[in-house]
Design a protein that fits this description.
Elements (H helix, E strand, L loop, with lengths): L7 H4 L25 H7 L17 H14 L15 H21 L3 H9 L6 H14 L1 H16 L5
Length: 164
Amino acid sequence: NVFRLNPDAVTAGIPLPAGLSSANSTSTTTQAPKYSPAEFFRRGIKRDPSLFPELKDERHNDAWHRSFMTQARAQGIDDALDESYVPSTDEEKDLFQEKQKYLYAVLETKVKTDRGKLIVRKYDQTFDARAVYLELSEHHTKSTKAAMSAATLLSYITSERLGT
């Protein structure tokens, strides 16, 4: 329709539909509705929670964190996990809240470890996905269990002999 109603189409030898002249063809365009960034997020690309990996065993937390962040970037919601990001305008704050809600729902379904579930439930009133992710990261890198696992791996790496 845009091509057909274009006044330049007449000069190219293509006639306009009956009843339309090139003088009134420019006034027939309609204004598209304006959406806020949060509405664009809700209406935008279909985000798929099933693509996020499940955390079933804390021994695989490093791979889980990499895959989880990769999926968040691919679905356009990685800034909701970035602790340095602070939304400044009201529109950005609304968009940030929408991303937080979505990510919290993803974390609630994908984190299956006992400690992970405890951390997720801790934020069930605020739906703060960023706080959940940061606390999970801290638990996986700085907890006593993480230190013991790192010590075991270091011991294995330094004492193992290569075969002939």
